[in-house]
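Q: Could you predict the 3D structure of Tetraacyldisaccharide 4'-kinase?
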Amino acid sequence: MVINKLEIWYRDFLSTRGIMELIFKIALLPIYVLIILYNTLRRELYSAGVIGRKIVLKKAVISVGNINLGGAGKTPLIIYIARRLVIMGKKPSIVIGGEALADEALIYKAQLPDIKVFTEKNKKTAIERANDSSCDIIIIDDGFQLLNVKKTLDIVIIRDDVSPTPIPLGWGREHISALKYANCIFISKPSHNYALKSIHGISKPIFIMRQVPEVIVNAGTGKIVNISEIVGRKVLLFSMVPSIGYISYELSHRGIRPFLVQFPDHYRYRDVDIKLVLKTGRSADYIITTEKDMLSIKNSLKKSHKEIWTLKSKIDIKNESEFWKMLMKKLNV
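A: Sure. Here are the predicted structure tokens for Tetraacyldisaccharide 4'-kinase:
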């Protein structure tokens, strides 16, 4: 909870424009420069083989990572890629490591029940387990900063609704120049053109990815309602995902303007939280949340909430066929 509160404060701080905030940001400039120098030097030394030794695995390795803090769309992209690989007769597995593995593992296991998901606090341990399994492709969730593993395809997904300026002056994990080490770039949440402007001059294949709302499903009854049927209705949208603003943006393009209630990322819902949401949305025709939130709610609470609907979206990729041609070439298929 302390980390979540700090995250909210930091997001608010980055959006302020007061004199004191400006002075503070200027004071942080040396740290900003040091972080960029450290990340750049680390990548260059790894690339030159001066430090570290790249582990060559028995399986093909697809990494999906980002350079932004917060949600960029890795999970839906990984689900999309894994499903397509299964249709093609492949046996992918997914590797997750770090603090967020519980939330992500729930989503993968719910949406990809036939795909093995390897979860460990230490990502290297999870990769070793996947390498010894019967899968033929390892998909690493959040693997761009993992420099000691040889990858067949290194995908970086960046948010277009957040400035990519690195911390502590922005919400980026690395400088935008790090994208030159990727094989291809996905731009998610296309709404502000921050990303397109920032990556001008970086010669990598670029794919625009949208998550298009399709239907809502009632949590209690399973009833399905097409998004077009709730246009003009009162809608409350609550979520812990950082991209709630983008979800609202996509809904608004469909003629739906929801009232937003945002919880901290990786939040653990309690009964009191859901009661508050239901009270806030008592005049709404629909109370909607994401699939990630719904899994967390079902995992945390005993009661089935028939008043809540789950939003389901589809992945739409511009030049989708070009991406799969590139991937198949990398996999020697």
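Q: Anything worth pointing out?
A: The chain has two domains: 60-204, 211-314.
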